Amino acid sequence: MSSYTQKKGFGATIWDYITTVDHKKLAVMYLLAGTLFFAIAGFEALLMRIQLMKPNNDFVSAGFFNELLTMHGTTMLFLAATPLLFAFMNMLVPLQIGARDVAFPFLNSLGFWLFFLGAVFLHLSFFMGGAPDAGWTSYASLSLYSPGHGIDFYVLGLQISGAGTLISGLNFIVTIITMRAPGMTFMRMPLFTWTALVSSALILFAFPPLTIGLLMMLFDRMFGGNFFDHTMGGNTIIWEHLFWIFGHPEVYILVLPAFGLFSEIIPAFSRKRLFGYSSMVFATILIGFLGFMVWAHHMFTVGLGPTANAIFAVATMAIAVPTGMKVFNWILTIWGGSIKVTTPMLYALGFIPSFVAGGVTGVMQASAPLDYQLHDSYFIVAHFHYVIVGGIVTALFGSAHFYWPIFFNRMLNETLGKWTFWVFFIGFHLTFFVQHFLGLMGMPRRVFTYMEGQGWDQFNYISTIGALMMGVGVIMMVINCLMSIKGKPAGRDPWGDGRTLEWAIPQPIPFYNFRQTPLVRGLDPYWIEKQEGNKEGMTYAEPLGDIHMPNNSAIPFVISLGMFIAAFGALYNPDADKPWSIYVLIIGLAITFGAMIVRSVKDDHGFHLHKEEILEIEEQLYGKGGNK
Amino acid sequence: MSSHDTPVVAKSQAQYEYDRHHNAVHMRKQVINFAIMIFLTFIAFAVVAADFSKYLIFPFVLLLAGVQVVLQLYAFMHLEDKKTHFGGVIGFFMWMGILIAFTFFLAFLTIIWW
């Protein structure tokens, strides 16, 4: 028996996950970490909604409410939605393009550990003197004067996890451009891979402005810099521009892969190829490009002047065109299809009207004069939750159901899944639909309480009930996931309607993915093979031979751990009573650079998996008593 | 031998001569481009030294800078090289990045007031 097929002990399994460079294991790690932070941020939202349930409530203090709203927004966007989408990108992109792994498996692992330790660092702020409290936007005019270390946790934590995201984004770009199987031309790529590519390109262009902004903030707060201090000749507006130059594309970074996931689910359960494939690709690229040209619509009330406001208003409205193309393409894919309303399809059907509602309020805000009325009110809160929950969270839940068999070779329970959908979906609309009216009635966002007798009480109460329903929905989802552990192996293509390569691969997926690189003969390659009665599911582009695989490595974890330690040193360095902090900073950076030097000096050529070993592994996986 | 091994083949005389010629042409191109770069820099300095109106100097020097950036990318950073894998994709990414960065630059100059 070779070492690949042996059962591992508990310690060895942990070590395997810490050192792994396998995109499938990293995808599972992203899924677990993302779910953890999603639960934390969701819990923060529940606390806020309980506080706002009735007027003059004192469930939490004003200061703690600020921390809750800041951490809810920051965590949901950077540490929950991003890693959960990265989980799907990591799992699916190499499989969809017929690759053995991503282009740089080492960097994939580094990206995960930087993200995870940065996120842990940010969350430790709750136990170490208070979390950041200036909103997820952390506008400089507020954050520079925030006492304590909360904002420093924000700056350093996001800097580290942002570096991880940037690394992963670059990795996906290179993977998708260079690692496609023979025949997989750009215009044959599944739409999820396309959206992953465009979204990664957005990461590449959008994260550097955030890095610069955070660095300037770091200088202002820790070294007495004056980039954002107007009394010293700085300008606080610069932070707002840098933040939104990043922040607006960030929204598209998240929503484009969500579009991609639905573009996989909808054709599968309409049993029809995606309507208007090339226009979908074009719309994705156009949304990505226009996403960079609209950031100032978050700043209409700053006083940019009518010309600038008009330009950004028109550019913003223009985004509705490619997005509309996508919506019509989805509807026309469903139209006339042989529809199966499974749980993923249910999420897709719920997504279309919810997301369109969020889009319509978005176009309303794009009109600058109206935005002067809506700005900083609950209308804005309702709008972006319709886009993010209605667009991204439904995509994540729906594709969790859809892709669970690819991740774990198990199916989630359909009946419980449908119940979860209805509880969550009704809760979602109950929470956020009434917030439109609260905003129009003048309730400002980011307030910890309100006086009674303004007509807001009823709607706030309804909103809180909805939020509790969403909480119940999430718990049902988690129970469903845990129940699947005891489920039966799902096997290949358990839905029976898989179209793309990830469904063609036998389950459980061996660590080298495809035994032989597949040959792609058109859009939806697995569908083509099934139509032609090919039991193998794939046409191969090469004979069975040795496979070159990368070695596992603990270095990414050590590099990230060094940054994590150094961040504490940097955090406490401005305090006069903590002279030890400089040594912590030096030790942390020494660990990071030491690990980087080891990586650079020591050659690691990976290893070859020989033909006999492949056959032995496949016999163990798919032979008698296999398919675990 | 597995399908992944790269065979090593000795160069033929014809191949050797072809490569030699190719390299010579390439080197000539590099030197010419380098000379153009020096010349453009010289003109930029000359315009300033000649003390023309600043309304001439500013746009002119910026124009020269733009030309030099393009030359730098294509001549010295191999964007023109047709043999580069995915050269078109790389070029597309670069120009997209330049365009986006230019938008930020323009916005920061025009709509941030002090």
UniProtKB/TrEMBL annotation, chain A:
Pfam families linked: COX1
Predominant cellular place of this UniProt entry's protein: membrane
InterPro entries assigned: Cyt_c_oxase-like_su1_dom, Cyt_c_oxase-like_su1_sf, Cyt_C_Oxase_1, Cyt_c_Oxase_su1_BS, Cyt_c_oxidase_su1_bac
EC nos: 7.1.1.9
PROSITE patterns (UniProt xref): COX1 (PS50855), COX1_CUB (PS00077)
Subcellular location: Cell membrane; Membrane
Protein's UniProt keywords contain Coiled coil: no
Pathway field: Energy metabolism; oxidative phosphorylation
TM region(s), chain numbering: 27-48, 68-89, 110-131, 151-179, 191-219, 242-262, 274-296, 308-332, 344-364, 384-407, 419-441, 461-482, 554-574, 580-601
Catalytic activity, as annotated: 4 Fe(II)-[cytochrome c] + O2 + 8 H(+)(in) = 4 Fe(III)-[cytochrome c] + 2 H2O + 4 H(+)(out)
Domain Cytochrome oxidase subunit I profile, chain residue ranges per copy: 9-521
Topology within the bilayer: Multi-pass membrane protein
UniProt enzyme class: translocase
Keywords of the record: Cell membrane, Copper, Electron transport, Heme, Iron, Membrane, Metal-binding, Respiratory chain, Translocase, Transmembrane, Transmembrane helix, Transport
Protein task: Cytochrome c oxidase is the component of the respiratory chain that catalyzes the reduction of oxygen to water. Subunits 1-3 form the functional core of the enzyme complex. CO I is the catalytic subunit of the enzyme. Electrons originating in cytochrome c are transferred via the copper A center of subunit 2 and heme A of subunit 1 to the bimetallic center formed by heme A3 and copper B.
Family: Belongs to the heme-copper respiratory oxidase family.
Protein name: Cytochrome c oxidase subunit 1
Originating species: Lysinibacillus parviboronicapiens
From TrEMBL, chain B:
Bilayer-spanning residue ranges: 31-50, 56-77, 89-113
Membrane topology: Multi-pass membrane protein
Keyword NAD found: no
Annotated compartments: Cell membrane
Keyword list, A-Z: Cell membrane, Membrane, Transmembrane, Transmembrane helix
Short name of any one Pfam family annotated for the protein: COX4_pro
Keyword Cell membrane assigned: yes
Protein name: Cytochrome c oxidase subunit 4
Species of the source: Lysinibacillus parviboronicapiens
